[in-house]
Design brief:
Number of strands: 11
Number of helices: 20
CATH architecture of the largest domain: 3-Layer(aba) Sandwich
Number of domains: 3
CATH superfamily of the largest domain: 5'-nuclease
Distance between the termini: 31 Å
Oligomer: single chain
Largest sheet: 7 strands, mixed
Strand content: 5-15%
Strand order of the largest sheet: 1-7-6-5-2-3-4
Length: 430
C-alpha cells in the first residue's frame, strides 16, 4: 500500500486543493482504496459474512460529492494478484487471519468495543464486493473498469492515454508507476492533497527526487522496500536517496553493500529487484479503446527475444487466457491472447481470479444463499427460483429512492466508453 516514508518527504510539494479545481475533468478512482475506507463502517458484517449495504452507501456519498463538484469519475478495481507480489499478499493474509481470531475472541468475551478495531484490521476486500459497486455503476452509467491485475498501473495507463486528468488514491506506489497527478487524503468536503510529478524539481537538496531518472527512482523504492521487495534493513527512503545518488546502477549498489558490514540484504533481494523493475514498467493493463490486453509500457524486443527473460517477466506482469486453448498461460504475443475473455473480466462479468466463473456481487450471493436455506427448510423451491432471478443489487434495497436508469445494454457498455467521448453527457446520478 505504498512506499514507507515517501509521502512525508514530498510534504514541501503537497498542495492543499479543492476538487473544484478539477471541475468538468475526469478523475480515476482507486476502487479498492475506497472499499477499504468504506469497510470500517461494516467490518463486523464483512468478516462474519453478513449482508450489508454500508460500503455501497459510502461510494454513493462520494460519487454524489463528485457530482456536486461536476467531476466525472472513472472507477478502477483491482483484478488478480501477481506472482511477484505473493510474499506481500501472504503476509497480509496471515495478518488478517490473526486479527480475525483476536476480534472473535474479544467479541465472544463481550469486549465489543476493542473487537471492532480488530474486525477492521481483518477485512478482506473481494471482487464480489467490487461487483456490488459495478452493478451500481452500470445502473447509473458511471465509467469503470476491472484491471487484469493491479489497479495502479491500470490508472496510470488511463492517464497516459489522456482518458483521465488525475488519480484519487492513497497509494504512493502510483508515483513509481509514472503517475503525473496524485490526489490523496480526500475528505468528505472535497478537500485533498495534490502531488504533481512536475513539482519534483522543487524538492530540497536532501531529497532531490526530480534529479533521479525513472530507473533510479525504482532503485530507491526497491532499497527502501515496496510491495515487490523486502528492502534493505535500516534503509529508508532518505538513506536510499543517498545511495542511488552515489551509485546509479543497482549492481554497483549491491556490490558496495556486500563490501560493508553496516548493511546487508537477503538472498532473495537481487531477484526481487529484478522482478520489481519488470512489474513497475510492464504490467498488464486493459485498453478501453482497443478492448484488448496490453502492457503499461512496451516490452523491449531484447526481453521478448530471450526465453529466460520471458519466464521472468511473466511472473511480474501476469498470465492471461490463450485464444487457441482457452487456458490461462504465459502468453507474450498479444495476438495469441483471448481478448474477449479479458474484456468480460474488465466489464466485471467474469471473476478476475479464475477468469472463467461468473462474478456475482457479494450481497446477491448472500441473499441467494439465505433464500436457498429458506427453500430447504420450507420446501419452497419454486419460490426460491423466482426470487433469485430478481436483481438483488437494486438501489431500492440501498437507497430510499430509485433514480432514473438507462437500459441494461447502454449501462453495461459505458465502462468501455472514453470519458472524453461522453464529456457532453452527464451520467444519470450526475
Amino acid at each position: 500500500m505504498g512506499i514507507p516514508g515517501l509521502l512525508p518527504q514530498l510534504k514541501r510539494i503537497q498542495k492543499q486543493v479543492s476538487l473544484k479545481k478539477y471541475m468538468y475533468q475526469t478523475l480515476a478512482i482507486d476502487g479498492y482504496a475506497w472499499l477499504h475506507r468504506a469497510s470500517c463502517a461494516c467490518a463486523f458484517e464483512l468478516v462474519m459474512n453478513k449482508p450489508t449495504n454500508k460500503y455501497l452507501q459510502f461510494f454513493i456519498k462520494r460519487l454524489q460529492l463528485l457530482k456536486r463538484l461536476k467531476i466525472k469519475p472513472y472507477i478502477v478495481f483491482d483484478g488478480d494478484s501477481l506472482f511477484v507480489k505473493n510474499h506481500t499478499e501472504t503476509r497480509r493474509r496471515k495478518k488478517r487471519l490473526e486479527n480475525e481470531m483476536i476480534a472473535k475472541k474479544l467479541w465472544s468475551a463481550g469486549n465489543r468495543y476493542n473487537a471492532m478495531e480488530y474486525f477492521q484490521k481483518s477485512v478482506d476486500i473481494t471482487p464480489e464486493m467490487a461487483k456490488c459497486i459495478i452493478d451500481y455503476c452500470k445502473l447509473h452509467s458511471i465509467p469503470y473498469i476491472v484491471a487484469p491485475f493491479e489497479a495502479d498501473p491500470q490508472m496510470v495507463y488511463l492517464e497516459k492515454m489522456g482518458l483521465i486528468q488525475g488519480i484519487i488514491s492513497e497509494d504512493s506506489d502510483l508515483l513509481v508507476f509514472g503517475c503525473k497527478t496524485l490526489i490523496t487524503k480526500l475528505n468528505d468536503q472535497g478537500k485533498a492533497l495534490e502531488i504533481s510529478k512536475d513539482d519534483f524539481s522543487a524538492l530540497p537538496e536532501n531529497f532531490p527526487l526530480g534529479e533521479l531518472s525513472e530507473q533510479q527512482f525504482r532503485n530507491l523504492v526497491c532499497l527502501a522496500g515496496c510491495d515487490y521487495t523486502s528492502g534493505i534493513w535500516k534503509v529508508g527512503v532518505v538513506t536510499a536517496m543517498k545511495i542511488v545518488k552515489r551509485y546509479s546502477e543497482m549492481k554497483d549498489i549491491l556490490i558496495q553493500i556486500e563490501r560493508t558490514e553496516k548493511l546487508c540484504f537477503s538472498k532473495a533481494f537481487k531477484q526481487q529487484v529484478e522482478f520489481a523493475n519488470y512489474a513497475f514498467q510492464y504490467q498488464r493493463v486493459f485498453c478501453p479503446l482497443s478492448n484488448q490486453i496490453t502492457t503499461l509500457n512496451n516490452i523491449p524486443k531484447a526481453v521478448t527475444n530471450s526465453h529466460a527473460e520471458i519466464i521472468k517477466i511473466m511472473k511480474c506482469i501476469g498470465s492471461v487466457v490463450e485464444r487457441e486453448s482457452g487456458v490461462r498461460k504465459d502468453v507474450i504475443n498479444t495476438k495469441n491472447i483471448d481478448h474477449k475473455v479479458h474484456e468480460m473480466i474488465a466489464k466485471g462479468e467474469l471473476h478476475p481470479v479464475d477468469m472463467a466463473s461468473k462474478l456475482i456481487n457479494r450481497e446477491r450471493k448472500l441473499k441467494a444463499r439465505k433464500l436457498f436455506k429458506v427453500g430447504l427448510l420450507g420446501g419452497e423451491s419454486n419460490s426460491f427460483n423466482k426470487k433469485v432471478e430478481q436483481p438483488l443489487v437494486d438501489t431500492q434495497d440501498v437507497l430510499s429512492e430509485r433514480e432514473n436508469s438507462l437500459d441494461n445494454k447502454n449501462a453495461s457498455s459505458i465502462y468501455m466508453t472514453s470519458p472524453a467521448a461522453i464529456s457532453g453527457t452527464v451520467p444519470s446520478i450526475f
